[in-house]
Structure formats: C-alpha cells, structure tokens
Design brief:
The chain has about 325 residues and is an alpha/beta fold. It has 11 helices and 15 strands. The protein binds NADP nicotinamide-adenine-dinucleotide phosphate (NAP). NADP nicotinamide-adenine-dinucleotide phosphate binds next to helix 1, helix 3, helix 4, helix 8 and helix 11.
Length: about 325
C-alpha cells in the first residue's frame, strides 16, 4: 500500500501558524474497506477558513480536533473504489484535508466533478471562491443596476470576482480596497474597478466620502474591522451589506471594534452574513454564468500554485500577510 503523509493539528495556533502547531505523520494507507473509495489528493484549496477551523471555538463547522488531520477542501482522483458512484479515475472534490490520500466513505461529503477543466480552475473561479463571489453579490447583497458598490479584499480570490460581477450586472461605480499599490493597480487597470483604496496607506473613510458623495448602496465585506466601520459611516439609504468574511479577525483572540452600526438605523440599511454551504442549490447557476463570462473575457482571475503538501502551513499564512496574487492552491500531486 502507498504511504500517506498527513499533517495533524498538534495545538491551537496563536496568530500566524508555525511548524510547532502541526505534526507530520507518515503511515501506510489501510486496505480499502467495502463501501469506501481511495482518493489520491491532487490539490488543496488554501482558504482563510482553514485558520478559523483551527481555533478552539466551533464556527459554522466544529473546530478541528487536536490530533486530527487539518481540514481543507481539495480535489483528488479515485485510485480504487468499493463505493457506488465513485469509479477509478473520477475527479472528486470535498473536504479531503492536508494529506496525500483521502478515504471517502458513504458519509463523506464528496462530489464527482466533470472532466476537462483544469484542477486550479475547479478550485478557484468554478469552485467555492468564484461561487461565493457570485452568490454573495447577487443573492445576499441583491445587487441592482445603478448601485454604488464597495468590495474589500478586492485583489483576493473572492473579492476580485465579486467586483467584476457587480460591474457586469450594471453597478454605477465599483471601488475596491486592497493592501498594496500593485494590487490596487491590478484591480483598476486589469479588472476594471473605478478605483481602489490602499487601506494600509490611505484614510479609507475620507476616500469613501470623496468617492461616494451620495453614499454606498452595496458593500461586499471580506475583511471586517476598520474597513467595515468606514463603510458603515458612508451608507446610502437602503444600503445592503453582505458579510462574506472577516479576515482581520481570524488570527486575533478578539475582533477589532466596529462603532458605526447606528448608521444602519439612520439609513434603513441591512447587514447579512452568509455561508456558501447554505446555498448549494445555486451552485449550478453560478458555475454556468461564470463559465460564460470567463469565455467572453469579462471576468479575469489569478491562481497561484504552490508545489508540495508540506508547504500548506506556510502558504496558509500568506493569506494573512497578503503576500500572494489571487487564489492560492497547493499542488499535492501531478494530475
Ligand atoms: N462566507 C463564505 O461562505 C465564504 C466562502 C469563501 C471565502 N469567504 C471569505 O472571503 C474572504 C476572502 O477569501 P479568499 O479566499 O478570497 O482570500 P483572499 O482574499 O484571496 O486572501 C485574503 C486577503 O485578505 C487580505 N487581508 C489579510 N489580512 C487582512 C486584514 N487584517 N485586513 C484587511 N485585509 C486583510 C489580504 O489582502 P491585502 O493584501 O489586500 O490586505 C489577503 O490577500 C475571507 O474573509 C474568507 O473567509 C467566505
């Protein structure tokens, strides 16, 4: 039997993850039981939520138990199957975790994917990243033609797509926030946002006031904290805020404060959090429309592939330092 490298959570991280937070074990893959399928993991999606799941408290899923393989979404190929619906050679996606081999059981959340698309695309634009942008902007923020829109994390996987969808669907103005001048330039020059505020070097509140004299109709929030607060101070009447993520809080023991919620009352606005797993019925619509927009050249996206399962922890940290361009994927094996 092949050897399975598994990265286990050894202790709860404090801030960015370190090697001491994990234990790497190598063990032979157990012989396949009746009703199971063995999947060779090909690539892992690197997501901010991986870090959320490492915390002590449960989130929308239970916290990863100490000693368990680190939970992560990914894609693999079936190498042996005794499970109905899974054939050798099928491409499957699900919560495979940071390991080389994933044993899928009848209880696993695992889905067979269509063949023919690159694994990197299936994990980014046609995976949770692109679908979250689609559902967040259209169903949660309920974008309407003519809306004035702000997207934070605008150079990231979700944010970059969310802003382009707003543009396609007729927003009157789309402004992003990002953490470096290079990212802001890409967001404006390549993705077609009207402006991008560097939240590390500019006064976000003042810039929003200048750019939105009539207020912000839609805010797609990926970061929480001070950026959310600055947007709350600049809302138009009837504003809609979609809380997609709060990355500024994920590595902290307490989130940064937000003071301006009373403005939601004054402006009759609403703020709604969402988790993409509650919207599975909308995935096919999202993928169909994204495929069309990509083919027409109306949506651009970047994927950065890092080679080697052992690099998953350091790659996860780059989501929090911002040192990456677009969606991060760890390649575990050649497809
Ligand atoms: N609700 C859902 O179901 C769902 C599903 C998928 C993702 N999400 C959320 O969507 C958000 C984006 O995820 P993604 O996978 O596309 O990651 P990403 O945006 O590609 O990467 C994360 C980015 O966050 C920015 N960032 C890091 N720390 C920050 C801080 N303290 N303040 C402001 N910005 C900070 C960095 O960009 P800069 O260099 O610009 O700072 C970094 O590049 C995350 O909050 C994630 O949890 C939610």
């Amino acid at each position: 039997m092949p050897t399975n490298r598994r990265i286990l959570l050894a202790r709860r991280p404090d801030g960015l993850v370190t090697d001491a937070d994990f234990e790497v074990v190598e063990e032979p893959v157990a012989p396949l039981a009746e009703g199971d399928a063995l999947v060779r993991v090909l690539a892992l999606s690197v997501d901010p939520t991986n870090r959320v799941w490492m915390r002590e408290q449960d989130s929308y899923l239970p916290a990863i138990e100490l000693g368990a393989v680190v939970r992560a979404a990914g894609i693999g190929t079936v190498v042996e199957s005794k499970l109905d619906g899974f054939a050798t050679g099928d491409l499957v996606t699900g919560l495979c975790g940071w390991q080389d081999y994933w044993t899928v059981t009848a209880d696993s959340t695992a889905n067979v994917l269509p063949a023919g698309l690159p694994v990197e695309d299936l994990l980014s634009i046609y995976g949770v990243t692109g679908i979250t942008a689609y559902i967040g902007m259209l169903d949660v923020c309920e974008l309407r033609e003519g809306d004035a829109v702000v997207v934070s994390g605008a150079a990231g996987g979700v944010g970059s797509v969310a802003g382009q969808i707003a543009r396609i669907k007729g927003a009157s103005r789309v402004v992003g926030t990002a953490g470096t001048p290079e990212k802001c330039k890409w967001v404006v020059d390549e993705l077609g946002f009207d402006a991008c505020i560097n939240y590390r070097s500019e006064a976000v509140g003042e810039r929003l006031e200048e750019l939105f004299p009539d207020g912000i109709d839609v805010y797609f929030d990926n970061v929480g904290g001070p950026t959310l607060d600055a947007v709350l101070a600049n809302l138009a009447i009837g504003a809609r805020i979609g809380l997609c993520g709060a990355i500024s809080a994920y590595t902290r023991s307490t989130p940064l404060p937000v003071y301006n919620t009373p403005n939601l009352v004054m402006q009759r606005g609403r703020m709604r959090g969402f988790i993409i797993l509650d919207h599975l019925d909308r995935f096919p619509d999202a993928v169909m429309e994204l495929v069309g927009w990509v083919a027409e050249g109306r949506i651009k996206y970047r994927v950065e592939v890092v080679d080697g399962l052992e690099r998953a922890p350091e790659t996860l940290n780059r989501l929090f330092t911002g040192e990456h361009d677009g969606k991060l994927v760890v390649r575990v094996a050649e497809s």
